[in-house]
Write a structure and sequence with these properties.
The chain starts with 8 loop residues before the first helix and ends with a helix. About 75% of the residues lie in helices and about 0% in strands. It contains three helices and no strands. It has about 90 residues and is mainly alpha-helical. Helix 1 packs antiparallel against helix 2 (about 35-65) and helix 2 (about 35-65) packs antiparallel against helix 3. The protein has one domain (about 10-85): Up-down Bundle (Methane Monooxygenase Hydroxylase, Chain G, domain 1), CATH 1.20.58. It has helices at about 10-30, 35-65, 75-85. One of its GO terms (biological process) is negative regulation of DNA-templated transcription.
Length: about 90
């Protein structure tokens, strides 16, 4: 199933923000920053990626429910994708 690109813009923004945070973490490690600061930023990146994944699955579920015959993707498949993020 291809997801609606307009609906996925918020996911793209979230992932781009996480990408920037990840670059910041790399710089922090290279600069010898404190462990607590690094781990705090890692937690933020992890949460952002998790939320992007959940938002993607939610969009897929909405599309699946709106047109269940499109691409042959069913709710069970979307549920399996959702649980893979846990």
């Amino acid at each position: 199933m291809k997801l609606d690109q307009d609906e996925m813009q918020s996911v793209l923004r979230r992932l781009k923000r996480a990408q920037g945070q990840l670059g910041g973490i790399i710089a922090m490690i290279e600069d010898g920053r404190e462990c607590q600061d690094i781990v705090t930023q890692m937690a933020a990146v992890s949460k952002a990626i998790d939320r992007a994944g959940f938002a993607t699955v939610a969009q897929g579920l909405r599309q699946c429910m709106a047109d269940p015959d499109e691409d042959g993707v069913d709710v069970a498949t979307m549920e399996k994708l959702f649980l893979s993020l846990a």
